[in-house]
Design goal:
This protein is of the alpha/beta class. The chain has two domains: 138 residues, Aspartate Aminotransferase, domain 1, CATH 3.90.1150.10; 221 residues, Aspartate Aminotransferase, domain 2 (3-Layer(aba) Sandwich), CATH 3.40.640. 36% of the residues lie in helices and 15% in strands. It contains 13 helices and 13 strands. The mean pLDDT is 96. It binds pyridoxal-5'-phosphate. Pyridoxal-5'-phosphate binds next to helix 5. Belongs to the class-II pyridoxal-phosphate-dependent aminotransferase family. Histidinol-phosphate aminotransferase subfamily. InterPro entries: Aminotransferase_I/II_large, HisP_aminotrans, HistidinolP_aminotransfase, PyrdxlP-dep_Trfase, PyrdxlP-dep_Trfase_major, PyrdxlP-dep_Trfase_small. Its cofactor is pyridoxal 5'-phosphate. Homodimer.
Length: 376
């Protein structure tokens, strides 16, 4: 019997609401009647990629676009491996760290398995698990951070992967080396432990761990990193994971070959490890973080700021409403209800003058809603 196409979709997929990405900036500017739109929503680097990567992008030959890229980012992996002092076989690249989340879940999980992460973190671990038919167990946070005990308590014989966002998006909390080590010892190889270090290059705290130093002792440890944040290459889509050779080989079974375009591979190679770019970006983020945190607290708002190029602020009203009010003033922030922080917005830390203008705009929104100007 003929069926409606939707009836061919498994029921657990039909229950999932598709993620609706925001409209292009040009569309939003026209819709809201604004001449500029400052992106404070996606934790992008306002400086763009490092200079060498910009040059590489500019020097690309359009004719070369007829050629398939390296299917496994061979040159890039060799380059990164040499700089990191590991083997190229310990690195797997993907079309953004997002794609790698999918590879890892596909490699380790089958129906009936579960993954464990926190309830207030980057949601893609949970989403990929769910549309893969795998249960996502979400543990409550402790002091806005991942709680190792709660995560272990949720573990059972069907737990295949723990996802730890270090530092956490959106709270900026992190596990130090000792916490990570103890957790790995407690898991004792019974499940994979993913440490997502998408924002590790921004870390200022001296106790922020170098997870690479734990790799030799822990074959079940996988480290995710990306070129989207510090390296300003979000538009080219490239991320990578590091692990011991055997797990990386296993994950290669489920990867999509040729998913990383040649421009991304070349630009990432030019960008990787540019210390000057990293230091310049960190200086800007640090200055803006300290300033904005104080300014927002002065307005009477609760602020959660840790590592990373973002902070979150609690508002006395709905975050979606704040989004709409702020976008009319030219600022796009990230609403946090989806991250289970209702009435909070996440703000990407950009250059201080822009943060100053943003603070004035937010203050006006608070006033429009009847909240007194707390700061003179
Ligand atoms: C914690 C975390 N992990 C992974 C990603 C995905 O990064 P990519 O752009 O490489 O897919 C993001 C992006 O926002 C993130 O915040």
């Amino acid at each position: 019997m003929k069926k409606h196409p939707s009836m061919l979709v498994p029921e657990f997929i039909r229950e999932i609401d598709p993620y609706i990405p925001s409209r292009p900036d040009s569309y939003l500017m026209a819709a809201y009647g604004i001449p500029v739109l400052h992106r404070l929503n996606n934790n992008e680097n306002p400086f763009g990629p490092p200079p060498a990567a910009m040059e590489t992008i500019q020097s690309l030959n359009p004719k070369d676009m007829a050629i398939y890229p390296s299917g496994d980012a061979f040159d890039l992996r060799c380059h990164m491996a040499e700089k990191l002092g590991i083997s190229p076989d310990q690195i797997l690249c993907g079309n953004g760290a997002n794609e790698i989340i999918q590879f890892v879940i596909s490699a380790y999980c089958e129906a009936g398995d579960n993954i464990i992460t926190a309830d207030k973190t980057f949601a893609v671990y949970e989403w990929v698990a769910e549309f893969s038919g795998v249960q996502a167990r979400l543990t409550p946070m402790k002091d806005h951070g991942f709680d190792p005990e709660a995560m272990l308590a949720f573990m059972d014989e069907r737990t295949k992967i723990f996802f730890i966002c270090n530092p956490n998006n959106p709270t900026g909390t992190f596990w130090d080396k000792e916490t990570l080590q103890k957790f790995l010892e407690a898991v004792d190889g019974r499940a994979m432990v993913v440490v997502d270090e998408a924002y590790c290059e921004f870390a200022e705290d001296e106790t922020f761990p170098d997870a690479l130093t734990l790799l030799d002792d822990h074959p079940n440890l996988l480290i995710f990193r990306t070129f989207s944040k510090m390296y300003g290459l979000a538009g080219l889509r490239i991320g990578y994971l590091i692990g011991q050779k055997d797990p990386v080989f296993d994950i290669c079974r489920t990867r999509i070959v040729y998913s990383i375009n040649s421009a991304a591979q070349k630009a990432a190679m030019a960008a990787f490890g540019d210390k000057e770019h990293i230091e310049k970006t960190k200086r800007m983020v640090k200055e803006s973080k300290n300033w904005l945190k104080t300014r927002l607290e002065g307005m009477g708002l609760d602020v959660i700021a840790g590592e990373g190029n973002y902070l979150i602020a609690g508002l006395p009203f709905n975050d979606q409403l704040a989004y709409r009010k702020l976008i009319r003033k030219g600022y796009m922030v990230r609403t946090m209800t989806g991250f289970r922080y209702p009435n909070h917005i996440r703000i990407t830390l950009r250059e201080k003058p822009l943060m100053e203008d943003f603070a004035v705009a937010l203050e006006e929104v608070l006033e429009e809603r009847g909240y007194p100007r707390l700061l003179s």
